[in-house]
Amino acid sequence: MLESDELLLLRAGVARLNDGLIILDRSPDAQPPCISYVNEAAERLTGWSRDLIIGQPLSALEGGGTSEEAKRRLALAYVTEDPLRIELLLSTRSGREFWADLDLMPITDA
Known about the structure:
By secondary structure, the protein is an alpha+beta fold. Helices cover 34% and strands 23% of the residues. It is built from four helices and four strands. The chain has helices spanning 3-15, 40-46, 50-53, 68-80, and strands spanning 22-25, 34-38, 84-91, 97-104. A hairpin with a 5-residue loop joins strand 3 and strand 4. The two termini are 28 Å apart.
């Protein structure tokens, strides 16, 4: 199988996962880190279309009851580039709040 075929299969599989996948860009140009990819499940869970959420900071999805401690832990993980598993109160586009388990896995590239 050609590498381009594998990439197409991987792209199709990720798009259709049952779990929401959100990828953040934390390049120097993206301050604060902004959403650069969401799969179909993330669109369904949050009520945000890909066109509207791409380029927004992750805080656009934070629920009003998100604790300061959770925000601090998340900010620290960005700075230290450490993996983090955290439960956050998120909000849909219509304002309905829901709890989500987030796995933050930094992927660095020169």
